[in-house]
Specification:
17 strands; alpha/beta; 18 helices
Length: 442
């Protein structure tokens, strides 16, 4: 077999239901995985680039199934120690002054951070209401992305009412222009903001547009008691029940957070095959509550892990998210077995890819897209790595990622982003961001 890239001698976690391979080999040709196996099973092969992963883990790249990159990088570290709605109001003051160049730099910084952290695909809820800067940034840092165009028409976000309706009414033009761009790495979707910021007519139109173009819907749902109170007072039911009554919920929907769910909500989500993006660190930081993990999994609801944005999480580190998810739900349920190691790893890879509707990534198997990372578990903070799985979930961190391959392209080579002047981007962003902050809060 002739391959473009071969990763050899690693501990291969395929995340496809099979056992891990000791001294495993992953062969990549073009943008697909050519073969996965060992010397005993693969026979003769050759490759243009061979990566020796001895002592390291080879695994699918993380799929970050709910995040906000461009906007939230610019808001990182602002207005800490605030409750959700106070925090949202503070952020909106700055969002109203965003410009293309600053959003482009912020998007590049977020993409580079994810690349270095082993996140190879992400589901963007673009609440900056200007998606083109991030589309441009993906030329420089070509991760796999689903970019959700943000919409709102009331409350805090009433200022984008006109934009939202115009954008939705001619959304077919955006689908034609962007969906499938960058050799299929880029998809577009719809991101109505939340039940408290979008009215029923806007929700119904989102469903019509999604059905017409076969694209996904990505929203915040049941994110704490304030949302529950708002929808209850206005519509007499829970946020989940309200969206179900509008015909919005379905298998093409990714619902982020979902901390304020009752038994009827969970049954609805299971019956309608709604996907959930779980963001435990953001939920805890903004006091949004703890998602009912046991009940969702017992009902058969599909749950993936996500970082949310770097304003409510501060980093784009899926290792932190895995650890926090595991320990939070073990403690909340007084059950150390609720989220075993392999389940957490699957939630950050294969399950998260499914939760963002990218079915051809998230595991290592012949024919799957070549989105692969190599993680160093031989560090001082992971030693002795008796269990590679335990090291990944509880000891490793973002800077342990050595190599990242996206769509068959080696983008992170021995911790160095390929073809990117990282320091220059950070310096330019910092200058722009500080000027934007001073303008917004003077």
């Amino acid at each position: 077999m002739k391959a473009d890239i071969a990763i050899v001698n690693g501990y291969v976690k395929t995340m496809d239901g099979g056992k891990a391979l000791h001294d495993g080999i992953v062969l990549v040709k073009g943008n697909r995985i050519l073969a996965v196996g060992t010397d005993d099973t693969l026979g003769d092969w050759e490759a243009g680039r061979v990566i020796n992963a001895m002592g390291n883990v080879v695994m699918p790249g993380f799929s970050n199934c709910h995040t906000h990159i461009g906007s939230n990088v610019l808001l990182r570290g602002l207005n800490e120690d605030a409750k959700l709605f106070e925090w949202l109001g503070h952020m909106w003051k700055m969002k109203q002054n965003f410009d293309h160049e600053t959003l482009l730099l912020a998007s590049q910084v977020g993409l580079i951070e994810m690349l270095k952290a082993g996140i190879t695909s992400f589901n963007e809820h673009f609440d900056a209401y200007s998606v083109t800067p991030e589309i441009d940034a993906l030329e420089t840092v070509p991760l796999r992305a689903t970019l959700g165009f943000g919409f709102a028409d009331r409350g805090l976000y009433a200022d984008v009412n006109d934009y939202s309706w115009r954008a939705l009414e001619d959304f077919g033009d955006k689908v034609e222009k962007y969906h499938g761009r960058y050799q299929g790495r880029l998809q577009v979707g719809l991101s109505p903001h939340a039940t408290y910021s979008c009215g029923p007519e806007l929700w119904r139109l989102c469903r019509e547009v999604a059905d017409a173009h076969g694209i996904s819907i990505h929203t915040h749902l049941a994110e704490g008691m304030q949302e529950l109170k708002y929808v209850g007072e206005h519509y007499g039911c829970t946020p989940t029940q309200w969206l179900a009554s509008l015909g919005v919920l379905g298998p093409d929907v990714t619902a982020a957070h979902c901390t304020a769910l009752n038994a009827e909500d969970i049954a609805l989500m299971a019956n309608l095959d709604v996907k959930v993006a779980h963001c435990p660190i953001s939920n805890a930081k903004l006091c949004s509550g703890n998602m009912p993990m046991r009940e969702l999994l017992s009902a058969g609801v599909h749950v993936g892990l996500a970082t949310d944005g770097p304003a409510s999480h501060n980093t784009l580190d899926m290792f932190q998210e895995m650890k926090f998810a595991a320990i939070t739900h073990k403690n909340a349920n007084i059950d150390p077995e609720i989220l075993p190691l392999d389940r957490v790893l699957r939630m950050a890879t294969r399950d998260a890819a499914i939760a963002m509707h990218r079915l051809d990534t998230g595991c290592l198997a012949e024919g799957m897209l070549a989105d692969i990372i190599v993680v160093d578990i031989g560090t001082i903070h992971s030693a002795p790595a008796y269990s590679p799985e335990a090291a990944l979930v509880y000891s490793c961190r973002a800077d342990d990622v050595l190599y990242s391959i996206v769509d068959g392209q080696l983008l992170l080579d021995n911790k160095k982003p390929v073809g990117i002047e990282e320091e220059e981007v950070v310096i330019r962003l910092t200058e722009k961001a500080c000027a934007l902050r001073d303008k917004s809060f003077r």
